[in-house]
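Q: Convert this sequence to structure tokens.
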Amino acid sequence: SLASSLSDDLLAKATIEVVHLLQNKGLKPEMTRTNIQMIGAL
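A:
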């Protein structure tokens, strides 16, 4: 469905953004887990 496709696209973009943030700032593992949990909640 269109809704699931849109959701997958947003999830992919959010994941990429988090990865870039982690690479740029070298955040702690605790922050990584928090971001992953936030993405999973969307």
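The radius of gyration is 12 Å.
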